[in-house]
């Protein structure tokens, strides 16, 4: 397996030398400064690739292997194939990436909000911090800050009581922080930051979009873009919903193995692949991760390896250590290594959402993406690979 690392570019808190010291060989990056919906230029992609791959004397070479992500404009999620201009722009970005010999693109199809948490520095018993999704705080935001029309119907009486108590306990700065965390787009998000009023307006635009329609729009998007990907030797890898269930009354259509099976059946192109994120899928107890890895072994073009831990209310969870939580990482890696053997080629993976710990507690970091927590996670994953007799690929 090839060891990847998500890098946010030249202004990131984590440097390329930090990546080298962690032991990764492959970079996962994107042109985050380009506005959503605007086509990437070949020159801009080539400039970033040169920055990553122009190895200083005496340094370990790195390669830019995966783009994460080319954001899919909101119009595509709402209108599907009818959003022709937006899809053409996306294809232009894909072609710019392919021209620079990057053959994997990760993307997601979550409407309005991307990956969602309520806390970005939840303190663990060790003193390290982790990102967390607290169901009561989420409901407090939905019911009492966002005040989404019709939200009450999505919560039981007991849920509403706990949400009220959580909201009443928040100081003004707590309300502001929760709003920023949910509405202002976390690092790597492929949705735009929103005010509360803008959030409501965006939700209103999805009134007629149910799960069947959102899935149809995703299939229409894939039908339009996979021929270009296939012609250029690019694999598109769809990231699971995070968390893998509806939020804010919005449907989500990449939350289970059956969701992916439906997409692969509808668009059988080999360019239509999967980003196997164990943390996102692992939030659901009914997702058997080793079985999903086995089922889609020939479709997994990229893997995010992290673990989440469901709490007393299983709708709440936090990011655990990579080898703890609700993910059997040894079993998952056995399946991925077996898949490599059948395919005859390595799978790119990266550690994901490390804890903020040690020196990183005193430094500015991107939530979920500190250097030391991810270094620890990658070392643990590499240890499993060595233990099962599968050394990482250089």
Kindly describe this structure.
The protein is α/β, with parallel strands linked by helices and 394 residues long. It has 2 domains: 2-115 and 208-310 and 323-387, Alpha-Beta Barrel (TIM Barrel), CATH 3.20.20; 119-201, no CATH class. The protein has 14 helices and 12 strands. The strands form 2 sheets. It has an 8-stranded parallel beta barrel, surrounded by 4 helices. A hairpin with a 5-residue loop joins strand 5 and strand 6. Helix 2 (42-53) packs parallel to helix 4 (84-99), helix 5 (135-145) crosses helix 6 (157-168) and helix 12 runs parallel beside helix 13. The N and C termini lie close together (9 Å). The mean pLDDT is 95.
Largest sheet: 8 strands, parallel, barrel
CATH C-level category of the largest domain: Alpha Beta
CATH architecture of the largest domain: Alpha-Beta Barrel
Q: Please state the CA-atom Rg, rounded to the nearest Å.
A: 20 Å
Average pLDDT: 95
CATH topology of the largest domain: TIM Barrel
Question: What count of helical segments does DSSP give?
Answer: 14
Question: Order of strands across the widest beta sheet?
Answer: 1-2-3-4-7-8-9-12
In the predicted model, the low-confidence regions spanning at least 5 consecutive residues are none
User: What share of the residues does DSSP label as strand, in percent?
Assistant: 5-15%
| Number of domains as seen in the coordinates | 2
**Global geometry:** globular
């Amino acid at each position: 397996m090839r060891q990847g690392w998500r890098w946010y570019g030249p202004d990131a808190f984590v440097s390329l030398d930090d990546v080298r010291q962690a032991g990764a060989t492959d970079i996962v990056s994107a042109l985050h400064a380009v506005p959503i919906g605007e086509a990437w230029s070949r020159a801009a992609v080539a400039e970033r690739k040169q920055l990553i791959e122009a190895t200083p004397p005496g340094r370990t070479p790195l390669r830019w292997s995966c783009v994460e992500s080319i954001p899919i404009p909101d119009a595509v999620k709402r209108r599907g194939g009818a959003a022709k201009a937006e899809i053409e722009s996306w294809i232009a970005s894909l072609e710019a990436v392919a021209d620079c010999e990057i053959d994997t693109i990760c993307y997601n199809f979550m409407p309005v909000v991307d990956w969602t948490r309520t806390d970005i520095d939840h303190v663990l018993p060790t003193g390290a911090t982790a990102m967390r999704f607290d169901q009561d705080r989420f409901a407090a935001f939905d019911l009492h800050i966002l005040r989404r029309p019709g939200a009450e119907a999505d919560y039981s009486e007991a849920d509403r009581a706990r949400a009220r108590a959580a909201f009443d306990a928040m100081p003004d700065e707590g309300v502001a922080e929760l709003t920023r965390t949910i509405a202002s787009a976390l690092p790597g998000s492929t949705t735009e930051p929103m005010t509360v009023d803008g959030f409501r307006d965006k939700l209103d635009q999805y009134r007629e979009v149910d799960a069947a329609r959102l899935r149809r729009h995703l299939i229409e998007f894939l039908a339009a873009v996979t021929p270009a990907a296939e012609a250029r030797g690019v694999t598109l890898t769809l990231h699971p919903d995070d968390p893998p269930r509806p939020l804010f009354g919005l449907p989500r259509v990449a939350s289970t193995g059956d969701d992916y099976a439906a997409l692969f059946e509808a668009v059988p192109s080999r360019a239509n692949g999967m980003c196997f994120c164990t943390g996102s899928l692992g939030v659901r107890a009914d997702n058997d991760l080793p079985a999903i890895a086995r089922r889609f072994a020939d479709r997994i073009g990229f893997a995010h390896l992290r673990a989440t831990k469901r709490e007393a209310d299983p709708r709440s969870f936090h990011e655990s250590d990579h080898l703890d939580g609700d993910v059997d990482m040894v079993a998952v890696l056995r399946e991925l290594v077996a898949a490599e053997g059948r395919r005859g080629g390595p799978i790119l993976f990266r550690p994901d959402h490390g804890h903020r710990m040690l020196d990183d507690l005193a430094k500015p970091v991107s939530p979920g993406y500190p250097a030391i927590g991810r270094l620890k996670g990658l070392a643990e994953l590499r240890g499993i690979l060595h233990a099962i007799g599968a050394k990482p690929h250089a």
